[in-house]
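FAQ
Q: What does a multi-component entry look like?
A: The components come first, one per line:
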Amino acid sequence: MNAALLEVAGLTKTFHSGGRRVAALDDVSLTLAPGETLGLVGASGCGKSTLARVLVRLVAPDGGSIRFRGANWLSLEGAPLRRARRHLQMVFQDPLAAFNPRATVAGVLTDPLRIHALAPRAGWPDEVAQLLTRVGLPPDHAGRSILDLSGGQRQRVAIARALALKPDLIVLDEAVSALDVAVRARILELLVDLQRASGLAYIFISHDLAAVRAVSHRIAVMEGGRIVENGPAAQVVRAPESAAARALVAAVPHLARERTG
Amino acid sequence: MTPPRTGASLCRLRALGVRYAGAAHPALGPIDFDIAAGERLAIIGESGSGKSTLARAIAGLLPAGAELTGTLDWPAAGRRPTPGRDLGYVFQDPGQSLNPVLTIGEQVAEGARHHLGLSGRAARAHAADLLTQVHLPDPGRLLAAYPHQISGGQRQRVAIAAAIAAGPAILIADEVTSALDTTVQAAIVALLDALTRDRGMTLIFVTHDMALAAQLAGRIAVMGAGRLVEAGRAGDILQRPISTEARRLLNAHIDLDTPPLIGEAAP
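Then the predicted structure of the entire assembly, as tokens:
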């Protein structure tokens, strides 16, 4: 029963930029169990967003394999791929850029229901109300325009859109980085509550080790396209082994309750 | 502006309010507050609390049509600071605050040429010197580069160099690290700290991060819904916050000592 939900082995991806070859992914391997959160942390340009895009099949890797829900994820094409995408959803950093700016909340949330034919049309309003309630928004927000929501509310709608398809895995790419401290804390709590309730797995990508630590069971540290460290979250934070992990630990602003200066 | 005596009131706000053009309600105020010359002040608050509006009102950088009520005096200098010469301002996103079609050298030298009356050649040498002071590598080559050719953290260093080019006594840093990675953020905070300390500048640091505020500033002003809800010594606010806004920001703060939200054991 403890079979891996996701098994990534030997992923490579090279970009060519102005005559330079940049290895965005260099022999990346990882596994994820159902209901688990893997935190993926690293500085800008370490390849973490490329990995996210390869996992959700927005970018094709040069080499390597991905097994998801026991099947070869990279061999899926066309209609079977479109059907299978419902099991692996993504939430982006900037929810405003991730939505059609003219959409309403209800429109955003019924799109996946319609596309994947998950509920009869008559059931959509109920489904939308339930989704909004799950992410802590009042159901009467359904009629609002995306533009009328705050950044935190928009990110809740983005999470609700991902949840609409009852996925097994959500890849969150810097999903809380653009949010205020207080809003960020509430979104992190929401993610953990949703995981407890439904057993979904997350890959939580961020440059912010403190946010990663708060929600992750395991942490993988990326640098220069490689995973340079991978272990239980507490261990990576307490005793970082790689230079990249040590730099990330040192960079977290620490709230000194008593000033020493 | 001659550098005022440390401790003298640099800026005095009385019933200061700001209403943006066409807005039904004021974005700020009324605010009563004093900023001391040479102090290091953090203005903290959530999005929409009015912290950037307050910083822009102090800097005289409110958009056209914004209506200012109350008074904003400069007792130590006796007149408003001239932006660029007496007061430097660093914005959140250097991708937007830097001009994409001017070289880095032109943008950093501009303040020195305009406010210090340096010749083109002298201003260029001054700009190279400033780029060294903000720890950018190879300043000679960088002078001829454009903003898009360097990283976000490097762009923010360029914006800081441009802000201090004319040797202002006041530096306002408005969410300057929010768009940056944590590792880059730590380096920019260390740079601001060293630069303003070495020059005895007054630093006004706008942020939503309590830890950064306490790290850089001696005094913290907490904003909420356009009002100043609490102000005091940084250590006091961390240990004995009075306002709900300060408590909320402290409670929401996450660092590596914060208990994780999930159980330790993997499922």
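Q: Is there any commentary attached?
A: Sometimes. For this entry: Chain B has a mean pLDDT of 91.
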